Amino acid sequence: MTDATYGALAESVRRLIDATIRTEVGADTVAAVTAKLDAATAQLRAALMPGSFGQRCGDDGQPVASGNVVIGVRNPVAPPLTMHHEPDGSVWTEFILGAAYEGPVGHVHGGVCAMILDHVLGATAHQPGRPAATGTLTLRYERGTPLNRPLRAEARVDRTDGRKVLAIGQLGDVGGATVRAEGVFILPRPQ
Amino acid sequence: MTDATYGALAESVRRLIDATIRTEVGADTVAAVTAKLDAATAQLRAALMPGSFGQRCGDDGQPVASGNVVIGVRNPVAPPLTMHHEPDGSVWTEFILGAAYEGPVGHVHGGVCAMILDHVLGATAHQPGRPAATGTLTLRYERGTPLNRPLRAEARVDRTDGRKVLAIGQLGDVGGATVRAEGVFILPRPQ
Question: Of A29, A45, A80, which residue is a domain's last?
């Protein structure tokens, strides 16, 4: 089965998450819905992979991380972000974050900004077949990042020193950067 | 209505999220479940607060952030973490993260580690009625953080300089720290 079937399920759960946070229906309806969801979960659990999704081969034979908390199309916690890789090695992604990612009132949690920048900086530091591990990550918060507004995150490699890659990037809205980041990523030793 | 009713709904959605990522049932079942979930979401959306949860008064009159992505009991994306505040101002929390928080295979996404440390360091930097804003946050990744294992995050104020608070902390498992963090938080000007 392709990711599309499971992806539609995850997208449905994302809408449910938003409604769960924002609903103001009464206790009886909430209890009835909860019972329905428990039944749905039992149906899905009839056949369950052990542990976590990990990395599996997609229909094209390429490894996919469909359970990834940032980009995984099967993970309802993931927005999910789509990474665009430019020929110069830079990476960008555009998205909107709703109620599920709130920290300060009306704003994206600073920790969610950190999570996204960790992923985007890591994506630009990666080399084919050599996934980079985060060494250090430094974030500078310029101002609040609004919920429910178009956002963009981007990163590029600033310089490379042996197996160390220094990546820089930012998250921002139409008014410019809200959070700036730099990270040192470590490439695995060549085989 | 108390948070308990909505909290039970959110807890049900958390189990559903895990099953959504890990299920191996066939396409027919997935499609049937998706339809049920869409119906449940429609029931919850019959009365919906605008925008996001924000901060509301709990039954005891204290402000609560039930929609918060890290600690919100109504937010299925939140683990949710429970913050313990010690008399000396330090903060700690213990928890287990499952498949929904995966990055590297079998491990917590480094960005999720960053998110949690941002929140825990911020919680220790806060002063009553004076929520601190993150200025900078620096993370040092020592090794991978395992999924489905008991984890602990803790933080304390190292020093204060006017409105600037330097907080330090770490995330780790039974084997010690996996990620260390330091952050500069800015307190609002006194009223």
Answer: A80
